[in-house]
């Protein structure tokens, strides 16, 4: 692969070749990744004034300052590379696949007499992983089947030949009830154990036919040797495997190995169902939601989802059934829209799942919206507010023994946090641990600014604290002439008492009330935001003070380091070359000497 960079003005110089293009903004942030059969034609289409691009795309094009391309051998290679880059960087204009779950895997460990167990963490050196499984129930069904068919150990003993031969272990209950053959005391040799494990791997891969052939051969061998009890056990296991396969079967066993991917969409989202089918049995079924970013076509959305899901579920299918006729077939990707037969029925089943998922999401969204509206209306009623509090702002202070005093303001719109409206404050006019004066300062600064900018005031102001903090906030509003233009309350932590200005006695909202839970959530979010900022400032100040004690390093150099490396830990981990690039060679050497001394102290 070969990479090159171009300015937007030079887009016509791009090669007529398959590849991936990356758009960067003026802050050198990757904002979009795309793939193309012809880089020249595809990238030029963004800058063609006569092209019918939508508003979102025009907005993105205005941000582009640099184009970087990577040439590949085929459009399929471009598609796979695009998927890897999006998964790694998640650029803001690329399609967002909404799925924040971590899926379970089954792990066969890399040790003597390997074990099989479930895990959600992938550490390749531990062994071989199978999955991910779209549901825990499906995974447990396979694991239960394997444990019924084979005697796989469940203990965590270190069964190296030396420890087994030395007689360090004794058999446990699993041995006595027939779930283990006692490899810990030498009753089962490793080659026989691994022979069973190999068949378990075939089942985990969905290749039930291979496992069935194994049990048939074992049954015949035992029968020929007149070992009828052992032959009967093999027959029972074969029956169990066939029963499991019959329950999993959704179509003809002649359908060997394929994926099914269908899509339905609306104006903002697309809903995709993905199924993996092996030997007529569905071994994976997964629904995902994609948020549209740049008015992508249904075909683009389907291909994007397919590639990501095949990557996620490690598919090796040679054929993919889809419900949208591709206008631009991709060489190397075998996409089929079936018209009749069992494959058509698979598409219908998948579409039924996608449509149900869309309906479920719409219903859930409506219920969530209704709930939020109900809660803020209940809050209006509980606090006797003149307007629905669909815009709430909450303030909190943070300092430890008066050091690095800071404050926070969080904003909730329509009952949901609006993170872009959150604000941090350094306390400027107060010395020492004075929460009341600090509260007065930040409230005055916030609403003086809104007043000057002509922005709307919130429908409710919440102060984290009791009467003292509330009184200070009220003083601030009075001094800037906006008291009375917005309701303000204080919420005390201990008993969750609600204070109003001028009232000596607090009111209490029912502890189980949804409106009180909303206030608590807002208050806790303000506290979390303040504490996080305070820790960051305190860490920066402490490190900055240490740095300025080093000859040749002043406050500006300390700031440069923290701004570039983002944390103290990363500064200490940086190489001499990295430090030199930021602060020059002499200061970098002085800093490294200090870090080494600190390590040795």
From TrEMBL:
Stored SUPFAM superfamilies: C-terminal UvrC-binding domain of UvrB (SSF46600), GIY-YIG endonuclease (SSF82771), RuvA domain 2-like (SSF47781)
Keyword presence, Membrane: no
Start and end residues of each GIY-YIG domain: 16-95
Keywords: Cytoplasm, DNA damage, DNA excision, DNA repair, Excision nuclease, SOS response
Domain UvrC family homology region profile: 264-477
Subcellular location: Cytoplasm
One Pfam short name: UvrC_RNaseH
SMART domains: GIYc
UniProt xrefs under PANTHER family: UVRABC SYSTEM PROTEIN C (PTHR30562:SF1), UVRC/OXIDOREDUCTASE (PTHR30562)
Subunit organization: Interacts with UvrB in an incision complex.
Family: Belongs to the UvrC family.
HAMAP family: UvrC
Primary role: The UvrABC repair system catalyzes the recognition and processing of DNA lesions. UvrC both incises the 5' and 3' sides of the lesion. The N-terminal half is responsible for the 3' incision and the C-terminal half is responsible for the 5' incision.
Name of the molecule in the record: UvrABC system protein C
